[in-house]
Amino acid sequence: MIYTVTLNPAIDKTIVLDSLNLGHVNRSLFSRDDIGGKGINVAKVIKKLGHNVVAMGFIGRENSNYVYKKLYEYGICCDFIEVDGETRTNIKIVEEREGRFTDINQLGFETDNFDLENLIKRIKSRVNSNDVVVLSGSLPKGLNVDTYKIMIEKLKEIGVKIILDAEGEALRKGIEAGPLLIKPNLNELKTIVNCGESLEDIKKAVSVIVDKGITTVVSMGEKGAILFNKDECFYSKPIKVDVKSTVGAGDSMVAAFAIGIHDNLPFEESFRLSIAASTAKVTKEGSQAPDRNEILKYLELVEIQRR
Ligand SMILES: Nc1ncnc2c1ncn2[C@@H]1O[C@H](COP(=O)(O)OP(=O)(O)O)[C@@H](O)[C@H]1O
Ligand SMILES: O=P(O)(O)OC[C@H]1O[C@](O)(COP(=O)(O)O)[C@@H](O)[C@@H]1O
């Protein structure tokens, strides 16, 4: 089984404008709400690809019915711990004229170590060594930067395979505990290592992480993505598509790796699926997950280069 853990989920409110006029009244052309947050987006894509998944983590009690309803529409099995307050709403601004995407992510509800202990107990009671656990997204207020590190240490006692998708100190500390794979985008990578933008710069910057045995996938938006592990390095250039929203592109990649690790696929194959899934995602409005057929359509177009 694949489990996703979202400590700070979100309702993504996408607002499409011609162009954002700062300091003035702006009128939207179109808007939509999607259930999101990194782990939940991962779960949506895993489900669309026909795999079973359980979405875990925290949700705010005040609007939990809405969140459950949206997850139910995706057919996702969930097991969340409810905490006081609301699941946050994150604003995603799409400017059609510029083709520019701006995200405003809120802090979200507050939680504490007592809730975290309960969540870890809940996860440990469900998982076994054949399972994959995806830990992703920002930490809610009240949790320490070593939260992912602690979670990884505890889950590794059971032998589960762990993917971590975070940034800053939470990622840096999490890496110390040795997840199997991380997937920072270039900006997220720069929050933990000094790094330029060329493939050589990135390779040098991630070598300390890769040497620990952690497969590192660096996504670079419209410049494609690169995978490093101890034995291999693959690059994929992006596929040209009409981009509607980039929200959840990285999460779609993570979904593909979760499936690949769960099914023991070679990394090259998982990487290929991750590029297809993220390409299909960016063609969709808001943070809605692409359908399986849409992902498979792009799979044939992915070009992987061994570096
Ligand atoms: N403008 C784009 N055109 C084509 N593919 C894209 C575009 N933006 C993102 N992607 C695809 O999505 C992947 C992840 O995007 P990225 O923005 O790096 O991740 P994140 O959502 O984590 O910030 C890219 O490696 C690429 O495959
Ligand atoms: O937890 P964070 O870092 O605030 O990110 C939350 C946001 O990330 C998303 O999961 C999208 O992530 P990606 O674009 O990195 O795939 C949104 O659904 C959500 O609003």
UniProtKB/TrEMBL annotation:
The alphabetized UniProt keywords are: ATP-binding, Kinase, Lactose metabolism, Nucleotide-binding, Transferase
The molecular function terms in GO held by this entry are: 1-phosphofructokinase activity; ATP binding; tagatose-6-phosphate kinase activity
Query: Which PROSITE patterns does UniProt cross-reference here?
Result: PFKB_KINASES_1, PFKB_KINASES_2
Supply the EC number(s). Answer: 2.7.1.144
What's a BP term from Gene Ontology annotated to this protein?
lactose metabolic process
Q: What class of enzyme is it?
A: transferase
Q: Which CDD domains match?
A: FruK_PfkB_like (cd01164)
Which residue ranges run through the membrane?
Answer: none
Role played? Catalyzes the ATP-dependent phosphorylation of fructose-l-phosphate to fructose-l,6-bisphosphate.
- Write down the superkingdom of origin: Bacteria
User: What is the organism of origin for this protein?
Assistant: Thermobrachium celere DSM 8682
According to UniProt, this protein's pathway is:
Carbohydrate metabolism; D-tagatose 6-phosphate degradation; D-glyceraldehyde 3-phosphate and glycerone phosphate from D-tagatose 6-phosphate: step 1/2
Annotated Carbohydrate kinase PfkB domain ranges read 34-290
According to UniProt, the reaction catalysed is:
beta-D-fructose 1-phosphate + ATP = beta-D-fructose 1,6-bisphosphate + ADP + H(+); D-tagatofuranose 6-phosphate + ATP = D-tagatofuranose 1,6-bisphosphate + ADP + H(+)
In terms of SUPFAM superfamilies, this protein maps to: Ribokinase-like (SSF53613)
Protein name (record): Tagatose-6-phosphate kinase
* The family this protein is said to belong to: Belongs to the carbohydrate kinase pfkB family.
Q: Name one GO cellular component term.
A: cytosol
